[in-house]
Amino acid sequence: MPETPETPDTPAAHRRRRRPALLATVAAATAALVAGFLSWPGAQRADAAPATFVHPGVTVSKGQLDFARTKVLAGAQPWKGAYDQMMASKYASLTRTATPRATVECGSYSNPNYGCTDEREDAIAAYTDALAWYITRDARYAQKSIELMDAWSATIKDHTNSNAPLQTGWAGSSWPKAAEIIKYTYTGTWTNSARFGTMLRNVYLPEIINGSNSNGNWELSMMEAAIGISVFLEDKTSYDTAMAKFRTRTAAYVYLSSDGSVPKTVPSQNLDTTAKIVSYWQGQSTFVTGLTQETCRDFTHTGYGISAISHVAETSRIQGQDLYGTDVGERLRQALGFQSKYQLGTAVPSWLCGGSLTLGLGPVTEVGYNALHNRLGIAMTNTQTLTEQNRPAGSNNLFVAWETLTHGDNPS
Description:
By secondary structure, the chain is mostly helical. It contains 15 helices and five strands.
């Protein structure tokens, strides 16, 4: 249909002739602005820090805590069995005495071990007591959790020796989970909560926020801790920094066929040839979906990496950003399924790790399985079998604890 003729030089005609060009200019400028904005590190992605942090919001939410509490009080399984297991553990003891050190020194393979086990286990105990408080409403457990956190925040100044980054990541993953529950659900007084936050900011965060070029489970655990600490501190800058490193490392830890002929790499590691990549992947030269960077090392360390990926994805979900719907979720799903299949006893083919695997995945499947299968409805036959077979999932005594209780078939 032809346009209605207008007198060329009237103001209305002038505006109408300019409008398409103006709109095109605005559209182009907007597109350029958006493209530039999205190219910034940490710019509004699905994994960017939320405008307002949700509390409690590190790995476990208030909704999840309420669901678990309801099930335990009703005597429903597997939650009651998981709760009983937790309460019978050394971590729930009300007579526990904290053993803080000013300097925690951890060498390779925990040699030397000056405060390393003590720190990790006190952190797990603080989290255990926080869970016990929430379910029982017995204030003694909240006070014990606070006592443990206060003892360390009054004492620790540094982590040293070769395993310092990993140790800081492990302990730093448990501390904020405990602190979030206590700070945001306990009705009593936590006088030294600010001092605890200062400890996390000054002693833990600087050790882990810049990452590591070691095996993938190191950096994944370090970023789990950094993200949890960032939530507690409501530090958006640190959250975005840690999340960006987490995304890069996750992509380099779990292989998908869509990655190409070889796995993705972390740029700072300079794995610029196939030979270097194969060496870094423990000599594995055949890459299949779900294989991890440490599958051919052993399943125990692989489990550390998988667990950290699931914890970060869960924290991100609680904070309002869905990583399960991104490649992170797909890598987690495939890693769980691949490792679960062999953990359950499937014969190992000759092309995989020379035909021999060192099993021992650990209690690390509940969080990812619940999110991907129960919430998203994805079939995960091997992971489901392994998860249900291993219930109730306990603690690995490093940074994983009681996930059948907190995440088992939990719709919240």
